[in-house]
Amino acid sequence: MLAACTALNLQVLPEDAADFVRDTFVLPVADEATGIRVDLIFSTTPYEAEAIERAVHVEVRGEPVPFATAEDLILHKFFAGRPRDLEDVRGVVRRKGPELDWEYMRHWAAEFALIPGRESLPVQIEQLQREDDDEAP
Predict the structure, then answer these.
(1) Helix, strand, coil percent values for the chain (each to nearest 5)
(2) I need a labelling partner for 125 at 20 to 30 A (CA). Which of 53, 89, 94, 101 fits?
(3) What percent of the chain has pLDDT over 70?
(4) How far apart are alpha carbons 71 and 82 in whole angstroms?
(5) pLDDT grade, residue 50 (50/70/90)?
(6) Nearest to residue 118, comparing CAs of 47, 60, 50, 52?
């Protein structure tokens, strides 16, 4: 993993990358030429495999780059639960509300609710959908 980062001119950001990845399943890196930060996320669950499969490919400089769908971005940000993430969720819903697959999000929120500390995710998704429905024209 570290050799691949070096070959791609990606600066590994955590001081102890191995410990950081073991604890978070994420490796933050930055492109040395542009300084653009990217989080490499290591998937280990059925949800993550499905999120990868659902990725939307966007052309960047002539190359297809997979990006998380709006639904998966929302789920990731709700799971993280930081104030900035929750603000980001509302922005995604403002832009994508009518197009969102709410059933998909409810399904995975119910699965995540089985994890201690994440019991409120289904309620958060339902509240978000109600807010979106209230703002619909």
Answers:
(1) 55, 20, 25
(2) 53
(3) 99
(4) 17
(5) very high
(6) 47
Q: What is the pLDDT of residue 57?
A: 96
Q: Which residue type is seen at 91?
A: G
Q: Give me the residue spans of the domains in the chain.
A: 1-42, 47-137
Residue tagged 């995710």 (tokens): 121
Q: How many CB atoms lie within 10 A of CB 41?
A: 17
| Cβ(111)–Cβ(100) below 8 Å | no
Q: What is the pLDDT at residue 81?
A: 82
| Cα separation, 52 vs 107, whole angstroms | 17
With beta carbons less than 8 A apart as the criterion, state whether 60 and 124 touch: no
What six digits make up the tokens of 115?
Answer: 């994890």
Contact by Cβ (8 Å): 93, 85:
no
User: Distance between CA atoms of 73 and 85, rounded to whole angstroms?
Assistant: 10
Closest CA to 107 of 72, 70, 69: 72
Band of residue 133 on the pLDDT scale cut at 50, 70, 90: confident
